[in-house]
Design goal:
By secondary structure, the protein is an alpha/beta fold. It has 15 helices and 19 strands. The chain is elongated and about 70 Å long.
Length: 493
């Protein structure tokens, strides 16, 4: 936008009076004057020449005045700079947020102990299917216990879209964008609330370019790629209608924005369809968060400016500036071990199944009630769910049905533990219950659950001892716990 220069120049032929400065500093003259005063005092130390003293006081007053003027000038300069910075950020925040200046000290839902933020990923403007949201994820924050969970709904999950009917999850945002005026975010929000049974207080919608630029803005991210990824159908960067393919070797990898986007988007070949893609998207978001909140980024004006620019051009949210700040303060307190990544899938306890007559994914229970129950209690259930444990329950006593009663207790608790067998132990003489861990300590949350339940400490499998039925953990009931099962029946306490 061109500068408005009206009134900056004097009119033609206008007479401008030239005036000299109020004060001209002459360091040599001042030194000479001070020397004369000092000489007079040296010749007559008792001399109280008022004129000399007045001259000294006058010179000091002038110096103080100059210093004061300089200080005021610096203070004004700082305020102007701060004002320019605030205006710059405010102008960008106005593009990012629909309500940038809602000065709230707390987040919505914080008093209830849980804040839910919908994260939507859509295509870049001008691309085919740009309004389809292939990323539908909820970041749920336990503000009382400093925990967080990412919950991804695969894009092909059949959901009820309020006012539109049943369709795939990725269509919810597109359906709302087709309204007049466009209403994609609100329709997607209502759809997720309906499917998961939780209120959504905030949303963040970003396109692919936003993810790419955010990664580049923080100087790239580091990801431990668990296994080689090969997607022969990955689209070309310059033409999404053609396939250029994508390959990435396993191992610790530093990713720029372009590579991080491919890592987060690939879903064919060995990329694991939407289930693997959902987990990688959560992984990338966590890595960006860690890098963005690091001292190296926060203390680097250039990186901060790049992040703000990336967000301003590609992100939309209903969070105000103060709410963003509050979310940042809360997130700093959450340890990595208390962040859980959940993607509904076709696996055991994955809550979904394939529709035999279409490419849709359906709730395995026939409705979303099990999913709602899980999401409602996610901070208690997710620590075990992410470990995906397979457990065998064995009865090591003469008490009939002890292992079956323990199975009922586990099932009724709602814990996502895959019990692959309920059987008798090789002997019936166990006085003390036993927990055998075949994972080498890789499932601490599941192990702790059984330790607390049975009142014994788990022990690692003996060297060379292999799980014969593919179990991660074997629980053998002794008479110490069998007596409790008999006393309490099949209750789930």
């Amino acid at each position: 936008m061109p500068d408005d220069k009206k009134g900056l120049h004097p009119k033609k032929h206008q007479s401008i009076k030239s005036e000299g400065p109020d004060f001209v500093y002459d360091p040599e003259g001042e030194k000479s004057s001070e020397a004369k005063d000092d000489l007079a005092l040296e010749l007559d130390p008792m001399m109280k020449d008022n004129q000399i003293l007045d001259n000294k006081f006058e010179k000091r007053a002038k110096r103080r005045k100059r210093i004061k003027r300089f200080g005021i000038f610096m203070l004004i300069s700082l305020f102007v700079a701060a004002g320019i910075g605030l205006y710059y950020f405010a102008s960008k925040a106005g593009k990012i947020s629909t309500n940038p200046f809602n000065f709230s000290s707390k987040l919505k839902g914080e008093d209830e102990g849980r804040v839910n933020i919908l994260l939507l990923g859509v295509g870049d403007p001008g691309h085919a299917g740009e309004t389809l949201a292939d990323t539908n994820m909820v970041l749920s924050i336990d503000t009382r216990n400093n925990k967080a969970a990412f919950v991804s709904i695969p894009r092909d999950t059949r959901v009820y879209i309020p006012g539109k009917g049943y369709a795939k999850m990725n269509y919810a945002h597109a359906a709302g964008e087709a309204d007049t005026p466009p209403n994609g975010i609100e329709v997607a929000k209502q759809t997720v609330e309906e499917a998961l049974g939780i209120p959504i207080q905030y949303y963040v919608r970003a396109n692919f370019s936003g993810l790419k630029q955010a990664v580049d803005a923080v100087g790239g991210i580091d990801i431990d790629v668990k296994e080689p990824l090969i997607d022969p159908e990955y689209p070309c960067e310059t033409n999404e209608n053609r396939s250029c393919g994508f390959r990435l070797a396993a191992g610790q990898t530093h990713m720029d924005g372009s590579l991080a986007l491919k890592y987060a988007r690939c879903r064919k070949g060995t990329c694991g369809d939407d289930f693997g893609r959902g987990l990688r998207q959560q992984e990338v978001l966590n890595a960006i968060k860690d890098k963005a909140l690091s001292l190296g980024t926060l203390s680097d004006p250039k990186k901060l400016n790049s992040l703000i620019e990336a967000a301003a051009n590609n992100v939309k949210t209903n969070m105000s500036i103060s709410e963003m700040q509050r979310a940042y303060e809360i997130s700093k307190k959450i340890p990595k071990s208390s962040i859980y990544n959940v993607v509904f899938s076709l696996k055991e306890n994955g809550f979904l199944k394939s529709d035999p007559s279409s490419s849709d994914l359906l709730p395995s229970a026939g409705n979303f009630e099990e999913i709602k129950k899980f999401v409602k209690n996610i901070f208690a259930l997710a620590p075990i769910w992410v470990e995906d444990p397979s457990v065998i329950l064995e009865n090591g006593t003469t008490t009939i049905g002890a292992a079956g009663k323990l199975e009922n207790k586990v099932v009724n608790s709602g814990l996502p533990i895959n019990i692959i067998a309920v059987q008798n132990a090789k002997t019936k003489d166990y006085t003390t219950s036993k927990i055998i861990d075949y994972t080498g300590g890789k499932m601490p949350n599941t192990v702790k659950y059984f330790e607390d339940l049975l009142g014994v400490k788990a022990e690692p499998a003996a060297e060379g001892q292999k799980p014969l039925q593919g179990q991660d953990i074997t629980v053998i009931i002794g008479t110490d716990y069998a007596s409790k099962l008999v006393e309490n029946g099949t209750s789930s306490e």
